[in-house]
Every structure is written in structure tokens, then in C-alpha cells.
Design goal:
- The chain is mainly beta.
- The chain contains 5 helices and 40 strands.
- It has 3 domains: 317 residues, Jelly Rolls (Sandwich), CATH 2.60.120.200; 71 residues, Immunoglobulin-like, CATH 2.60.40; 145 residues, Jelly Rolls.
- Strands 1, 10, 11, 13, 18, 19, 20, 21 and 23 form a 9-stranded antiparallel beta sheet that branches.
- The longest helix has 15 residues.
- It is elongated and about 95 Å long.
Length: 577
């Protein structure tokens, strides 16, 4: 993935007035079971009302759409000189599983804590209404015996996404959104799967009932926060987050009260090994917004046991969405709430691949943006410019120009001398050999090379049980994660390998190759631990019959230290101690 050159360019262009998160999800086979927004249409063809307001004098007013967005003028005129609360937030999906804010927990009693109508100004200058504090109920949690539509039940796959404002932050459990018990009450761990958005400690949480594990993100104040959780229902789950125009990132585990190691990247992690229990969900299909499954947080913001929050939109999807669907949804959210209309951004790195100690020039440009900020480099808030960077490990840089984002990665590679065997018609002086074989050579037949004219070649037909390889010692930085890559073409060999070993011959990491499939690229991750020199090799165990291995285009690149691949490689060093 980051094996030689990796460059990402992204410019977010303005979207049409009507967003289509649920259209995209439907096309991907994970339709919206419910879809709520206080600000915009979530289907391109939705023309209904977004919500109904109740004024303190008892008057009611539906608020519909103007060009795909909330008719704020009507709402503000209606509420002028009065206090307004959300009476109903309408489900835009065909299931019509509306959030009823005026009923209390399927009893039919009047809810004294209807969310307050409020507005916030987003990073791109838009006025967005949101539901402040309070709570609402839907389906069987609102009215006994009511249908819960397509809400997933049992050990079903499900995805939930919520957009909230930083205007009011969780101070007590539980300003939830998502799957909950079919009626108010605690029926045990695993009967909930709900988002508990960032609180005043700036940590994302997941409410699983009888447990609210927390993560390390977002970690700082924000205006707009996206939370996304998903599961296949039976064994794994993921959590993602984003703030103010940024791309979704996987959350990292922060709670020491569970088996999951702190810092674990929550990308399809095992439920049983991370949570302990449950090992699968027992969802009841209830839907909650602003209160826990058992009613926790229903005391009102500012009161003992009362939850605080600021809800803008939320969707529950039938099934586990793909990362592509997630990214499309977040791009839509960024364009809606964070990107200044018409703003674009670009970022390039030149060169994109460097050796340790070398530099790369980052160049950023934008249009329609007020300022640009950089991640891992300083823009000085300028809307265009260039700067030199000298990373010691592979680093991804990003720029945010009034919500429009772009990124570029500079790959730091370890110098392998003559990686494609093009320097000479002999292996020396750069390459060495190990073991006894009929022949170690440079094959100068262009047709046998992966690229260029030459390739390395081992061939043998007379020896048995002897490991033979072509190898080269390379300098590395201690305690750094790397990826070794090479193209191999093996035929008739036993245990063909690409790998890394110490000067004493101890294997650090290796990967098996396949015979008879032509050139294939193989990659293996490793950490240098305390070593400053390691040996890369490609070879095989002699079978005593005709065998050969061609090799070409070796490379080593450093791996970003926070990637899951790098974390796994670094764990090797701990086990070696």
C-alpha cells in the first residue's frame, strides 16, 4: 500500500443543494433504516418536513425545506419572542419511524424535556438548527406496540452515524443515538449499540448497555463532530470519527477497564477480545436519541443524572457499511457543514520518495478559501505557498482550506544499492549470496526481468535441503517500522521466501512466495528494534530437482509509526526482549 510511491490528491468541490447520504448507502446495499436531520434532506428526492416545533404558547409549526435545506426563516419567525422546542423530528426514510419528542417512554405521558430549538454557525458560515439537550423516542420506545421498521435486531450487522455540534457537550450519561432496548429498561450488555458523542472530556463513547467504553478522540474542542460505529453483528466492530472538515479516522481505544489494549485501532476489532462481553449483539431494534436505553440521562441537562448534547443529524444503516460508503458520507458532511462554498484545495510533494536525510517540497494552493492550516507542517494560515520538510519516517501531510482538504504522503525509503540489478552484469559489489547453489547470477535477458534489462537469479538442481539466497546488508534507523518489497518469480522451489534477517542470520520477518505464477510483488513489514543494520534476502530451500528464482526491484520504505501494520511490527521488538 505504501510500498514505493504514494500520493493522494483530493479537492472537495461544492455539492448540489440536496445531499444524498441515504441514496449512496442504498446503492451500496446498506439502506438507511432511519434518517434524521434538523438541517437538510438526506435523500435527493426528499421533499417532506424536517421537524415540527412547539412554541411555549402551545402553537405548532412544521419546518420544511428550501432548496434542500431547513427553512430557517420560517422557524425563526415562528419562534421570535418565544421559546421553541422540537415536537417531532421526522424520519426521512420510507419507514417513517419519527422521533417523537413530546411523549415520555411509551407511556403516552407528556415529555417535560423536549429538546430546545437552537442554531449554530458552522465553519463555512451557515446557520444550522439543532436539537439542544432533552430527548426523543421512536417506534416501540415512543408508543407501546409500535413498529420499529427496518431497525436491525438480534446479531445483525448495523452501522450508525451521528453529526453533533460542540455547542453543548455530554456531562453525564447518556446523550445516546442508535440501537437501544425496545422499551425503556436495562436488558443486559449487548442489547444496545449506540453512539455517545464526545463529552466535555472530548472522548467518543459507545453505549453497549452496562458498559460505556471510551476512546481517545477527538481530544480537543470542535464545531461539528461526526461519530460512526458499525459491526457485523457477530464478532467485530469499528469506530470512526471526524471534526470540522476532516476525513474520517479510526478511533483508538482509551478505556483501561476492558481487555482491549489502550491505543488499539478500532478497525474490525474482535468484540470478545476487546470488550470481553458480549461476543455478539442481541439488538432489540429500539431507537433512542438523547437518553440511555434504560432512561439514563433523562433528568435534564444541568440536573443530577441529566445528559447534555446537541443533535444535528443521525442515520442507522441496515448492514455494515463499506469504508467507501463511510468516506462518501463524510465528504458530504464536510461539504455541507465545513467547506466554504466553492472552496478547493490541493497539496503536492516533490519528490514523493526520499532517502533519510533528504528533503521534499510541499506546495499547497486553494481557491475561495479564507485561510489554510496544515497537519504535520505549518502553513502560517496562508492560502498558498511551499515549504521544505525532512521527515525521518514516511509521513502524510494534509491541508485544510476553509474546510476543503487535500493530502500528500512523503515516503522515506532505505537505500538499497542496485535494487534492480541494473548496475552491472555481476552481483558484486552490492549483492552477496548465502548457501550452496549451482548458480547465483545476474540474468541479462530482458524478457526475464520484471523491469529494466536485468534481474537476480538463483538456480539449482543438485542440492537438497540447503537454503540459498541473494542478500544485501542495509542501514536502518533503530526502533523504526519498515516495509520490504520485491518482485519474485519462483519455479520448482521449496519454501520460497522474501525476508529480513540480522547479521547473525536470525530471521526478523519473512513472507512466503508462490511457485509458477510469474512475477508477483511480495511485501513484509518489520521493525528494526535496536538494530542499525539488517540484511534483506530472497531465496528458497533446495528441493534436489530443477528449481529457480528470479528477483527484481527491491525497495524498503519506512512505515508511519501509528499505522496498525507498524504497531504489529513494533510488537515483535517487545517479544524479543
Amino acid at each position: 500500500m505504501r510500498l514505493f510511491v504514494f500520493l493522494v490528491f483530493l479537492a472537495l468541490a461544492p455539492i448540489s443543494a440536496q445531499a444524498a447520504i441515504c441514496d449512496t448507502a442504498q446503492s451500496a446495499g446498506t439502506p438507511c433504516a432511519v434518517a434524521f436531520s434538523t438541517y437538510r434532506a438526506l435523500y435527493s428526492n426528499y421533499t417532506g418536513n424536517l421537524f415540527e416545533l412547539k412554541r411555549n404558547d402551545g402553537a405548532l409549526q412544521n419546518i420544511g425545506l428550501v432548496n434542500g435545506f431547513a427553512d430557517i426563516n420560517t422557524a425563526n419567525q415562528f419562534c421570535s419572542g418565544h421559546t421553541c422546542n422540537f415536537y417531532i423530528i421526522y424520519d426521512q426514510s420510507p419507514n417513517a419511524m419519527h422521533l417523537y419528542c413530546y411523549v415520555f417512554a411509551s407511556t403516552g405521558a407528556q415529555n417535560p424535556l423536549m429538546p430546545t430549538y437552537a442554531t449554530t454557525t458552522t465553519p463555512n458560515g451557515k446557520t444550522v438548527p439543532y436539537a439542544l439537550n432533552g430527548f426523543c423516542s421512536a417506534g416501540s420506545r415512543a408508543f407501546a406496540g409500535a413498529s420499529n421498521g427496518q431497525m436491525p435486531t438480534g446479531a445483525s450487522a448495523v452501522t450508525e452515524l451521528e453529526v453533533t455540534s460542540g455547542a453543548s457537550l455530554e456531562s453525564n450519561c447518556c446523550y445516546d443515538f442508535g440501537e437501544a432496548e425496545a422499551s425503556i429498561g436495562d436488558t443486559g450488555r449487548g442489547h444496545m449499540f449506540a453512539i455517545l458523542p464526545s463529552g466535555n472530556d472530548y472522548r467518543l463513547r459507545m453505549d453497549i448497555e452496562d458498559g460505556i467504553p471510551y476512546q481517545n478522540e477527538p481530544g480537543s474542542a470542535y464545531n461539528i463532530f461526526t461519530s460512526l460505529i458499525k459491526t457485523n453483528g457477530t464478532s467485530v466492530f469499528s469506530e470512526k470519527w471526524a471534526t470540522d472538515g476532516k476525513s474520517l479516522a479510526f478511533a483508538t481505544w482509551g478505556d483501561t477497564g476492558y481487555p482491549c489494549p489502550v491505543g488499539t485501532v478500532l478497525n474490525n476489532v474482535s468484540m470478545s477480545s476487546c470488550l470481553g462481553a458480549p461476543s455478539s449483539w442481541s439488538l432489540e431494534g429500539g431507537l433512542t436519541m438523547g437518553v440511555g436505553g434504560d432512561g439514563a440521562g433523562g433528568g435534564g441537562c444541568g440536573n443530577p443524572g441529566g445528559a447534555c448534547g446537541a443533535f444535528i443529524e443521525g442515520e442507522v444503516f441496515v448492514g455494515q457499511t463499506s469504508d467507501a460508503t463511510d468516506n462518501s458520507a463524510q465528504s458530504d458532511i464536510n461539504n455541507t457543514y465545513s467547506v466554504v462554498n466553492g472552496a478547493t484545495a490541493s497539496l503536492t510533494a516533490n519528490p514523493t520518495t526520499i532517502n533519510p536525510g533528504q528533503s521534499s517540497t510541499l506546495t499547497w494552493n486553494s481557491s475561495g478559501a479564507a485561510s489554510c492550516t496544515g497537519t504535520n507542517f505549518n502553513t502560517g494560515n496562508a492560502t498558498s505557498g511551499s515549504t521544505s520538510v525532512s521527515p525521518t519516517t514516511t509521513t502524510t501531510y494534509s491541508v485544510n482550506c476553509s474546510g476543503a482538504t487535500a493530502s500528500a504522503t512523503v515516503v522515506v525509503q532505505v537505500a538499497i544499492n542496485d535494487p534492480g540489478f541494473e548496475a552491472a552484469n555481476t552481483l558484486s559489489p552490492y549483492w552477496a549470496t548465502s548457501g550452496i547453489a549451482d548458480s547465483f547470477s545476474v540474468d541479462t535477458t530482458t524478457a526475464n526481468a520484471h523491469s529494466g534489462n536485468n534481474s537476480g537469479l538463483i538456480s539449482d538442481s543438485t542440492h537438497t535441503g540447503n537454503f540459498i539466497d541473494i542478500e544485501q546488508a542495509v542501514g536502518v534507523v533503530a526502533n523504526t517500522s519498515y516495509v520490504l518489497s520485491a518482485w519474485l518469480n519462483a519455479s520448482g522451489t521449496t519454501e520460497p521466501l522474501l525476508g529480513v534477517k540480522t547479521s547473525a542470520g536470525k530471521i526478523v520477518a519473512d513472507i512466503g512466495a508462490v511457485n509458477g505464477s510469474g512475477y508477483q510483488q511480495y511485501s513484509v513489514s518489520f521493525n528494526s528494534c535496536s538494530n542499525t543494520s539488517l540484511t534483506v534476502f530472497a531465496g528458497y530451500l533446495t528441493p534436489g530437482t530443477a528449481s529457480s528464482m528470479h528477483m527484481d526491484d527491491f525497495s524498503i520504505t519506512s512505515d508511519p509509526p501509528h499505522s496498525m501494520r507498524a504497531r504489529r511490527a513494533a510488537a515483535h521488538c517487545i517479544h524479543e526482549k
